[in-house]
Amino acid sequence: MKTTNLNQLDAQVFPVKRTTKITELVLGHERDLVSRVAPLVRRQSVALDLAEVERVDAAGIAALIELYTIACQEGHQFCVLNPMPHVAKVLAVCGLDRFLMSHNVELDSYSGQQIELTAA
Q1: What are 55-113's pLDDT values in tens digits?
Q2: For 23, what's the count of Cα atoms within 13 Å in the CB-facing half-sphere?
Q3: Which of 30, 71, 92, 119 is most exposed, with the fewest beta carbons within 10 Å of its own?
Q4: Over the stretch 2-21, which tens digit does the pLDDT of each residue have?
């Protein structure tokens, strides 16, 4: 299991697994991510590994903000890990890097659950 220390709380890390044509967190795919991850952030702190996500649009940003908000309301942490450079830049331009990106993260090997998005 992959865990990370987020302000003294252990967070489960869930990679967004690459599937056919799913390398973007964009309109049309964002609701699937929210429906899968929201129940998790209601129960525990979550770090979402975006290493396979090459592009994010306004709908994807809104989905990440929604997950962050749910986590905060439940008293948990939510962040994203390993965003590709372009995704990291979009988060920074929006000012969300301070809230969503974990900068001091310690990762262990991961063998647990993955969030798999299917092609729409």
Answers
A1: 999 999 999 999 999 999 999 999 999 999 999 999 999 999 998 987 544 444 344 45
A2: 7
A3: 119
A4: 444 444 446 778 777 654 35
| CA–CA dist 107, 119 (Å, integer) | 29
User: Is-contact 53 83, C-beta < 8 A?
Assistant: yes
Q: d(Cα 65, Cα 110) in Å, to the nearest integer?
A: 25
The percent helix, strand, coil of the chain (3-state, each to 5) is: 35, 25, 40
Write out the E strands in 1-120. 3-6, 9-17, 24-25, 45-49, 55-56, 78-81, 115-116
Distance, CA of 37 to CA of 34 (rounded, Å)? 5
**Where along the chain do its domains lie?**
3-116
Decide: 69 and 39 in contact? Cβ < 8 Å: no
Q: Which CATH superfamily is domain 3-116 in?
A: STAS domain (3.30.750.24)
